[in-house]
Amino acid sequence: MGMTSMITEEWLAAQTPDVQVVIRFLLAEIERLKTQVAKLTPQNSSLPPSSQHPHARPPRKKGKNKRKRGGQQGHPRHERTLLPTEQCNEVVDLFPNFCRRCATLLQGQDGEPLRHQVWELPKIDPHVTEFRQHRLTCPCCGETTCAVLPVGVPQGQSGPRLVAFTGLLMGHFRQSKRRAALFLQDLLGFPCSPSLTVKMQNQVGAALEAPYEELKEQLSRQPQLNMDETPTKQANQKAWLWTAVALRFAVFAIFATRKATALSELVGDAFSGIINCDRAKMYWQAKRLQWCWAHLQRDIQALIDHRDPQVKRLGYDLMRQVKAMFIHWKRYKAGKIRWNTFRTYMDPVRYEVNSLLLRGKYSGNRRLKGMCDELWRHREWLWMFVDVEGIEPTNNTAERALRPAVIYRKLSFGTQSEAGSRFIERMLTVCETCRLQQRSIFNYLVAAVEAHYMGTTAPSLAPTP
Asked: What pTM value is reported for the model?
């Protein structure tokens, strides 16, 4: 029983007037604090209070869906297409012996039998090649000479396909070195240890150096780049992972800073194209930008959620124009309207947004002045996608490319060495570029490692004109 429930009106009446005033004030304060705690407590009582933002909106109550889980009755059937019989590794013909009604012996063959195919993993046995290097003695001078390994045979015990597969496990499928070693040992039968995976990782990184540098050099000549960055770590030191995505390739790089010097090192000082990005100021040196309207939409939503009615009103007015803009853009991308028609539809939207920014700039409201003044002074960076055909209004391309890297960072907490950073940025570059070019990542890595063993340059990833 709580202390407040033990205080009754009869007991209060027996106290002096001064004591009654103090107790009633304390009881009211306790009730106020109870209400405040209830608002701050997460909806899920098993979570600590700090796990939910104090201003988070309560979840919407959804009506119970009457449909059962799984496929609904009458939905299109999805089945795996059967392989042609000649492509199967084994064909087993099955014949019934007796009639299922009268037990008469059956003979003959069905011209169109019912086909049932079972897919199975083959038993994996490592392919081991032994090179026996004979050492022979010269009958003339007595000097001994040992046979050398053929060109392309590694000095170590790991072949190019094994090295490429290990790099793929760690760099693309985000497995730790210990788990990659366990996978190779338990599932594939290769004797492996975490230190051996590090050795193979360094070999993959060295094999990808030339194609990576080639792509990096091509960034300065691109007409448009989608760029983004995310914090990471290298040997417990803060670092930044940058990405620059062109039309058919992407480049990742890890730098120790987020400053504009990193941007110059990545794309070069000669870059004259357009960069899709957020409003971070290190991009401003590029001069030609397209600010991401998805980021701006979140900023405008923050205005709508503000308690100040003046701020809220401007947020609603801006959001109305942003929604109209995206409607026109989606119609253009779907081929429903032409480029010139889209630009015509965008004229009133552009005029209205610029007018609203001026209203916020001279509103005298501290919450609006700074944001609206910056957007107004650089308003050409809001509408580059209207002035130049082919430019996207959002930076979703870079954010999608960066998402696997963010997941990797959360799982691994960054890299531990300079060599590890070079491996990650080169692997991320190869994986995203192969995805954009619809190439096999594994086949490319095998070719790159084979070229490294042969002492030649890995195949180029640069897109052909």
From this structure: 0.76
